[in-house]
Recover the amino acids of this structure.
């Protein structure tokens, strides 16, 4: 089997984080408990934590149950995003990340550090998607709106209620994209 970018990324992550593991969320007692808590805390608005979101804690990436059925490109995008969170955990420690991500300044509605951590990770997602699918993909208004909705909607507890600031952030990320190299054979 020929190695591809996903294999190379996993190898890079394993070298950078020796304790790296991928764990399916539905198989994790902790993740099922978090799911139940989020359902209650969000009054039922956050019901897709187990099936719709990947979560990193330290060097463990908890993935949705359909991980193996996802395309290799999609898994590549997820791991690019989650590697940023692994680096954040290394930089801030698990306790520091938990406190900043979950509580400062507020757990819901105005979660400055959660927004900052996710902006860093979503910027990597945007760069990775542009690499895999081309810059037109991330310039598409639907992709942009979906990304911004992650910050303003229930997915992350309405973490940053300032869509104009998020639009400016998104535009800065797009402006930093490197153009795709042109294949001379084409």
């Amino acid at each position: 089997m020929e190695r591809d970018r996903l294999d190379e990324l996993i190898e890079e992550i394993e070298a950078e984080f020796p304790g790296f593991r991928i764990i399916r969320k539905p198989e994790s007692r902790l993740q099922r408990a978090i799911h139940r808590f989020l359902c209650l805390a969000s009054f039922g608005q956050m019901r897709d934590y187990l099936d719709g979101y990947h979560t990193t804690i330290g060097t463990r990436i908890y993935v949705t149950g359909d991980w193996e059925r996802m395309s290799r490109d999609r898994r590549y995008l997820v791991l690019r995003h989650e590697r940023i969170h692994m680096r954040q955990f290394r930089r801030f420690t698990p306790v520091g990340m938990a406190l900043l991500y979950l509580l400062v300044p507020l757990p819901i509605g105005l979660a400055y550090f959660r927004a900052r951590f996710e902006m860093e990770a979503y910027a990597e997602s945007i760069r990775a998607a542009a690499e895999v699918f081309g810059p037109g993909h991330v310039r598409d208004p639907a992709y942009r709106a979906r990304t911004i909705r992650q910050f303003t909607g229930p997915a992350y507890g309405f973490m940053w209620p300032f869509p104009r600031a998020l639009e400016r952030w998104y535009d800065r990320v797009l402006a930093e994209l490197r153009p795709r190299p042109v294949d001379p054979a084409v």
Summary: The beta strands are 21-24, 55-57, 60-63. The chain is about 60% helix and 5% strand. The chain has a mean pLDDT of 93. The CA atoms of residues 51 and 183 lie 38 Å apart.
